[in-house]
Amino acid sequence: MGDTHRSAGFFVAGESGASHGVFFREELADLGIDARRRRKLLRDGELTTPRKDWYATPVHDAKVAAAVRAGGVLACVSALQRYGFWVPPGYSDEHVRSGRWADRASCTAYSPIRAGRTAVDSIIVALECAARCMAAEDWIAVCDSVQQGLGVSADRIRAEMGRLPACAEALLDKTDHRSQSGTESIARVRLRALHFKVVVQPQITEVARADLRIGRLIIECDGAQFHTDKTNYQNDRLRDRKSTIGNWLTFRLTYDDVLFGWDGVVEDIRAITRPGRHRGRASGMTTAP
Fold first, then answer.
1. Which of 35, 61, 153, 206 has the smallest number of Cβ neighbours within 10 A?
2. Per the record's keyword annotation, is Nuclease included, yes or no (predicted)?
3. What percent of the chain has pLDDT over 70?
4. Which residues contact 218 (CB under 8 A, 6 or more apart)?
5. Helix (H) or strand (E) segment spanning residue 237
6. 7 in a domain, yes or no?
């Protein structure tokens, strides 16, 4: 059955073989390499063939070639990681979307999608497959990363996908293009599931925003690569000082806090919110949910 995704462009088109060195026969033809030229390149060792009708250059991505060799294409979580989107830990296995005769289990989408003709699935196909492979909060965070990285909306993602079940539609409704990091996304989803009223990217000073806010409690979520940029580090410290002057309370959470120490984080947040310490009005604050 044909590919259900209609639009052209990077969002729905698979990654070019020029990036990873693995080409389908038709991709080589588009580059002007016909059957005669392919045979010569194979004889000269300039091409190898991981699978019938697929070709790899001497310098190629081993994971992409392995997915093709296994009977499919790099897909789902693995494709999203290759595109550079944030993916939480716990998804180390390579994800492959395979044809009928593959030698391994295949990732599948909700809608019918034709067999891959590029060695890495498109972002939209990868997202749809990941909706079946990932935990709900993790998939929401990845969708946030895609929206932030590409400047697209949840409605655009929904329009490009095939027919999604109600459960996946409900998850899309929980995404937020304003999220600046995966840890921020996970924290937001978890806090709202606990019925906290969370404000995303609130304005704290005239020139600075925070990640999340509950009343006057500011929650900053640092990513795994935090502190690598000296300018950002300095700006964060300046914002912390200004927020203290403005009578805000600040929790700064690390990557490990959010992903591996969440129970302790919730306990500490509740220690602030139970006695209502977060409900006082901070300087410049217009609402205090």
1. 206
2. yes
3. 81
4. 202, 204, 210, 211, 212, 243, 248, 249, 250, 251
5. helix 230-245
6. no
